[in-house]
Amino acid sequence: MNHDDNLRIHGLKATLPRMKVLDVLREERAHLSADEIHRRLLLQGEDIGLATVYRVLGQLEQVGIVRRNVFDAGRAVYEIEHGGHHDHLVCVHCGRVEEFFDPQIEALQHEVARSRGFSLVEHRLAMFGICGDCGSTPGRPGSQTVRRRPGSSGSMG
Fold this sequence. Notes:
The protein is an alpha+beta fold and 157 residues long. The protein has two domains: 1-83, Winged helix-like DNA-binding domain superfamily/Winged helix DNA-binding domain (Arc Repressor Mutant, subunit A, Orthogonal Bundle), CATH 1.10.10.10; 84-157, 2-Layer Sandwich (Dna Ligase, domain 1). The chain contains six helices and six strands; from the N terminus they run H-H-H-H-E-E-E-E-H-E-H-E. It has helices at residues 3-9, 16-28, 34-43, 50-62, 103-115, 132-135; strands spanning 66-72, 75-80, 87-91, 97-100, 126-129, 155-156. It has a four-stranded mixed β-sheet, with no helix packed on it. Strand 3 (87-91) and strand 4 (97-100) form a beta hairpin. It is globular, with a radius of gyration of 18 Å. Pfam families: FUR. Fe cation binds at residues 85, 87, 106, 123. This is Ferric uptake regulation protein. InterPro entries: FUR, Fur_C, WH-like_DNA-bd_sf, WH_DNA-bd_sf.
């Protein structure tokens, strides 16, 4: 589905800022902050302000076109909402985010909730570690230790 149709289905007009923000998210196929999206737009020669990027992201999140995730120190990153549930692995060194889906983890999360009298309506899991690129780089500063986020128990659910 193209951007115009997707926006119209969700009750939004296909404005230039909305189209450009969606273009960046689709082209990069990554989890990007508003600042990163804004920088990429500037590099493309687009005259779209940072406040506009934040406003557009909020609108797109509100109607379910993009998903907002907070992985590290309160920094929000955005991704196109594909409709399928997935979890995330986040590198604490380089910030790389990898999406994955594991049926066993999903089943275990539902069982944990059920055993405690909960019926899950939504959940998010982010696991923090060191990616293969960072862990295998000889002499990389801090490659021997894991930087933990303050107050983090290591998972979100």
